[in-house]
Amino acid sequence: MPNWIRACATTDIDLDDLMRFDHGAQTFIIIRSEEDEFFAMDGICSHEKVHLADGLVMEGTVECPKHSATFCYRTGEAKRAPACINLKTFPVKVEDGAVYIEI
């Protein structure tokens, strides 16, 4: 059975930006693409465990603020070294101005 958790309001994130969302012991990032779509993935870089919420969103990726590794926010795929381990992505839905992720 799906477990949908409210992460934020749609207005909390600008276009082509992201925000951190913590639930229990897990950290996520919620991304709003320049096309106004929302995505969610693990919020910690797989390379050196840095919070990705301090990173940049650009051209369909999130860049880690520490060593500039990048991850595709649609798939979680590690796109640029030094990261070589993909991140998990999570289903997202938007209802009544709120963003929900399934965990």
Written overview of the protein:
This protein has 103 residues and is an all-beta fold. The chain has a single domain, classed as Rieske [2Fe-2S] iron-sulphur domain (Rieske Iron-sulfur Protein). The protein has strands spanning 4-9, 17-23, 26-32, 38-42, 56-58, 61-63, 70-72, 78-80, 89-90, 92-95, 98-102. A four-stranded antiparallel β-sheet has the order 2-3-4-9, with no helix packed on it. The radius of gyration is 13 Å and the shape is globular. The mean pLDDT is 95. This is 3-phenylpropionate/trans-cinnamate dioxygenase ferredoxin subunit. Pfam families: Rieske. It comes from Gemmobacter aquatilis.
Q: Topology of this protein?
A:
Blueprint: E1 4-9, E2 17-23, E3 26-32, E4 38-42, E5 56-58, E6 61-63, E7 70-72, E8 78-80, E9 89-90, E10 92-95, E11 98-102
Principal-axis shape: globular
Query: What is the CATH superfamily classification?
Result: Rieske [2Fe-2S] iron-sulphur domain
- Reading the helices and strands in chain order gives EEEEEEEEEEE
Largest sheet: number of strands, sense, barrel closure: 4 strands, antiparallel
How confident is the prediction overall: mean pLDDT? 95
CATH architecture: 3-layer Sandwich
Query: First CA to last CA: what distance?
Result: 10 Å
